[in-house]
Design brief:
Layout lengths: L23 H18 L17 E7 L4 H13 L4 E10 L2 H4 L10 H4 L2 H16 L5 E8 L1 H6 L1 H8 L5 H14 L2 E5 L9 E4 L4 E3 L4 H4 L12 H13 L6 E3 L5 H13 L9 H9 L3 H4 L6 H4 L20
Parallel strand pairs: 1-2, 1-6, 2-3, 6-7
Antiparallel strand pairs: 3-4, 4-5
């Protein structure tokens, strides 16, 4: 573990000052993320054009693994501050047909209803609207990646192979979401108020931003792991391999080694509590004009996209998967 940096292990005082939007740690986190993002989103080569391209096709080099939650939406918003205005950003939002939940639906209902009812689809569309309000000059495109249960099972063996040596039910449910989102194909929408304009699209982007690891960075875990940041390193090793089939350069700015050490040292060193609600990041979202996003509840990707407990509600995440 010697290559992941030096971490501040000091505990904050019992009476920590109350964080505000103008507090030093909030600005420090913004600066660290902007610096890290600039290395990942600027000067990305324009993707090669495949087939016929219309005259109004927008130059899109960056996509975001987008649940509409706090972490990914803050990254999308900050990336927009760095990118030239003529470049678009694709927001990849994945939702699954969970057979246990699908069985409860009215057979005559809209086939897309099972996907639109996923928690991450609901928050994703809501945060999509907020990004449009905050950055009206940017071309945001929401890509709804809908995955039928049959397709999930058809790719199971390949996903199990990609996620090796991880081998639990929780690993598999997370890998499903990352794998299918990384394919970058779904129903595209530019204006949330005009569903009729939706069409099947594939993102041309080759850099995929992910907010995975922010929980570990900001100590939003069930017990702070010693040292702070080790959990996020594990999260990165998972996501970078599980999306490899999509030909992406997956980038997670929150895990940059200096960000681990410096952000933790700034917050803990100044006596700011690293609380389980990620207050520093929520205040940053509010500072960026995203009040609704700042209040979004934390939700694990496997529950938001409904890849967890597909076959049985009794399966635990710690169970070892069997079969290919």
């Amino acid at each position: 573990m010697s290559n992941i940096g030096i971490f501040n292990m000091a505990l904050p005082p019992e009476t920590a000052p109350h964080l505000k939007m103008e507090s030093g740690p909030v600005q420090a986190l913004r600066e660290h993320l902007m610096r890290s993002l600039s290395l990942r989103v600027l000067n990305v080569p324009q993707p090669p054009k495949v087939g016929s391209v219309s005259e109004d096709e927008v130059d899109t080099r960056i996509a975001v693994l987008f649940s509409g939650g706090l972490d990914c939406t803050v990254l999308a918003r900050l990336a927009s501050e760095l990118l030239p205005l003529e470049q678009g950003v694709d927001l990849l939002n994945v939702a699954f047909e969970n057979p246990r939940l699908a069985a409860r639906l009215d057979p005559s209902s809209d086939p897309l209803a099972i996907y639109e009812a996923c928690p991450d689809r609901i928050t994703g569309r809501r945060s999509f609207k907020e990004l449009l309000t905050c950055c009206p000059g940017r071309r945001w495109r929401f890509i709804a990646v809908n995955v039928p249960y049959s397709e999930t099972q058809g790719h199971r063996s390949e996903i199990v192979s990609l996620m090796h040596p991880h081998n639990t039910e929780m690993d598999l449910s997370i890998a499903y979401a990352l794998y299918f989102a990384a394919r970058g194909a779904g129903i595209g929408q530019i204006d949330p108020e005009t569903p009729s304009g939706c069409q099947h699209v594939s993102t041309p982007a080759r850099v995929l931003l992910s907010g995975l690891g922010a929980d570990e960075l900001l100590a939003d875990t069930c017990g702070m792991p010693p040292p702070l940041g080790v959990g996020a390193t594990k999260a990165y090793s998972r996501s970078s391999s599980w999306t490899s089939a999509g030909s992406w350069a997956i980038e997670a700015p929150a895990w940059e080694k200096c960000d681990f050490a410096t952000t933790a040292a700034t917050t803990a060193g100044e006596g700011i509590e690293l609380d389980p609600e990620k207050r520093v990041l929520r205040l940053l979202a509010a500072q960026l004009g995203m009040r609704n996003v700042a209040g979004e509840k934390k939700r694990a990707i496997q529950f938001g996209s409904r890849t967890a407990k597909m076959e049985s509600g009794k399966i635990k995440g710690t169970h070892i998967i069997t079969g290919p």
